[in-house]
Amino acid sequence: MIKVAVLGYGTVGSGVVEVIERNHTKVNASAGEELQVKYILDLRDFPGDPWEEKVVHDYQVILADDEVSIICETMGGVGAAYQFTKQALEAGKSVCTSNKELVAKHGAELLAVAAANHCNYMFEASVGGGIPIIRTINSSLTAEKLEAVVGILNGTTNYILTQIQENPEADYAESLKAAQELGYAERNPAADVEGHDACRKVAILSSLMAGRNVDPEKIYTEGITNVSRADFDFALAEGMTIKLLALSRIEEDGRLLAMVAPFMLPMTHPLARVNDVFNGILVTGNMLGDAMLYGRGAGKLPTASAVAADVIECGRNPSRTVVRGWTQEEAGLADIGETCRRFFVRARISRREAVEAAFPGGKVCAQLENHNDCAVITPKLSEKEFEARYSALGDAVLGRIRLL
Ligand code: HSE
């Protein structure tokens, strides 16, 4: 019998218990023996919950119990979650988590602790919710040199952007509230809308790709708070949409270019059709070319299913470290100021001439009815050059979005 403890009985933790219970025949068959949740750690009590008798408040009870070989860390945060994870791994108990903040910040160290103690630190649910992107990279693309990943990695912001795209009346605050009610948003939704959640996820993918540690603090990150209805109106008229993308690419000099920002992309691009809570991740390998994974990027049961799959993998591999992940050596990051692309610029109609003159060779977007703003798409410029010209325009400009 494989005995498991779940730390944190919130959205994902309760989902893990539900997946193991509702699918117990399949879960046990996959694990090769019966898998049972022995403890649930939480500060709260859950009177009336079918699993209330499993709830404990003291982590030491779990740590001291030799029967427990696998722990699901679904608490979130980098405080107690870090301490508890490290202690579990040092005691030889495998840990499976959805905690992208912790994996992005301390993943390299925790992977090393797991390897030293012949157990596993697994984090499938930390990127892309229910999409098996980590296992795909670790188990399926093992003959590939991965060159790039581009993805929609945050379900909450994709849900909000889809609402704005599809419904002219959609309100930003109401769309965010709906995403929170559906269980997609982080406890502090600023992590979603300001891009930090996608940044942590792309830091994890970048670290896996590079085999070295990518510090999320060093990744250029912009969220969706400046994307407006007017931006969408122009984008749609140009046959494009706007998505919050996370990019990571290994440059020719071996450095890694990683960033998170809203991008305009043609409706014909595969990521343009990834809507609502769905995530899409386009992976490029040197032999494979492109492969795309698509699925629910947030939500209780899809995320819990990914944690449960990690639990099963740990159960199948007792006392054996399956995945080594990446080392603690820092990966070198490229300067995004040197990268070149086109930009969409929205400006006051009264300043159209100045804006067009700042970006000669650009494309002037068709004027939209009932709009007192205008827009141009610049020729290809380096980020540095664009920012210099854009900021020189002062209050003539109302916003800018990169083109993919
Ligand atoms: N808040 C996250 C999202 C949850 O919206 O994608 C899944 O990591």
The coarse silhouette is elongated
Mean pLDDT metric: 96
Beta-strand share of residues: 15-25%
Main sheet characteristics = 10 strands, mixed
Rg, Å, rounded: 23 Å
- The parts where pLDDT drops under 50 for at least 5 residues are none
**Separation of termini?**
50 Å
Global structural class: alpha/beta
Q: State the helicity in percent bands.
A: 25-40%
Overall strand count: 18
Number of helices: 14
Task: For this entry, give a set of tags.
404 residues, binds L-homoserine, single chain, alpha/beta, 18 strands
Structure description:
With 404 residues, the protein is α/β, with parallel strands linked by helices. Helix content is 36%, strand content 24%. The protein contains 14 helices and 18 strands. Strands 7, 8, 9, 10, 11, 12, 14, 15, 16 and 18 form a 10-stranded mixed sheet that branches. Strands 3-2-1-4-5-6 form a 6-stranded parallel sheet, with helices on both faces. A two-stranded antiparallel ribbon has the order 13-17. Strand 4 (68-73), helix 4 (80-90) and strand 5 form a beta-alpha-beta unit. The chain is elongated. The termini are far apart. Bound molecules: L-homoserine.
